[in-house]
Amino acid sequence: MLFPEGTVALVTGGSRGIGRAVSVDLAREGAHVLVNYARSQQDAEAVVAEIEEGGGSATAVQADVTDEASVRALFARVRSDHQRLDVLVTNAGVTRDRHLVAMSLDQFQEPMGVNMTGTFLACREAMRIMQHRRAGAIVAVSSSSGLDGGFPGQTNYVASKGAIIAFTKALAYEAAPHNIRANCVAPGFVATDMTKVLPPPTRKKYEDRIRLGRMGRPEEIARLVTFLASENASYVTGAVLVADGGGLG
Ligand SMILES: NC(=O)c1ccc[n+]([C@@H]2O[C@H](COP(=O)([O-])OP(=O)(O)OC[C@H]3O[C@@H](n4cnc5c(N)ncnc54)[C@H](OP(=O)(O)O)[C@@H]3O)[C@@H](O)[C@H]2O)c1
Prior knowledge:
Layout: E1 8-11, H1 17-28, E2 32-37, H2 41-53, E3 57-62, H3 68-82, E4 87-90, H4 105-133, E5 136-141, H5 145-148, H6 155-175, E6 180-187, H7 193-196, H8 200-207, H9 218-229, E7 240-243
Parallel strand pairs: 1-2, 1-4, 2-3, 4-5, 5-6, 6-7
Helix pairs in contact: 1-2, 1-9, 3-4, 4-6
The structure holds NADP nicotinamide-adenine-dinucleotide phosphate.
């Protein structure tokens, strides 16, 4: 197992998709995983059950990452229940695709709020706990679209994902003196609820642009998150690990 006994990991948006796969993978490698969800309690409880059936340990924890009080309460619980946090994965995210000329301010701000502000709030609270023990790893789930511009209709999402990359690189400077690493994964096109909503011809068009000729699986992203969170990546910080099957851009 990659993680020593007692390791505590928190995955935001751990109830579905990539976050679900990350939660299962971290638990398989020995971490106790706090599976965060905003609304999908049943899904989060199903992730916990799957982890426990596999011999691991996990707890479902509710919090809306856009709500400062909610995030503070979540980390207060981490502190009181565990007195430590070794791994934070900021994965919670949404898309609200719309062409710019038709985009309302709310439609612009929603992905910025969940994706970027949610990352900020969780990282700030996690750093406060991790600094005490002078140890920790943060993995932010960005997107290859934050590097290559994504698709038409994604200015809001792409801006949030590019911001996460810049934020994480800056955080890596502040975290390093405390022996904390901060990295990003930048997945391409992955088969989850987020991409299921696309019409089949659109999906096909995107898949045709991927060198490997298929969408990624959440488990393929999870392995990279676990790597970055583990001591195998002890000399990696401020990095962006792209997993896009050979590129959409
Ligand atoms: N799928 C892709 O192709 C792809 C590609 C690149 C990057 N990504 C990124 O990967 C991450 C996961 O995406 P996914 O495809 O797995 O999406 P998904 O299947 O739609 O799952 C999204 C997760 O985020 C949680 N979430 C949403 N709003 C939240 C909030 N305010 N507070 C806490 N949790 C919240 C959801 O929980 P609730 O159901 O409880 O709200 C859910 O667990 C996102 O950051 C996404 O941008 C995805």
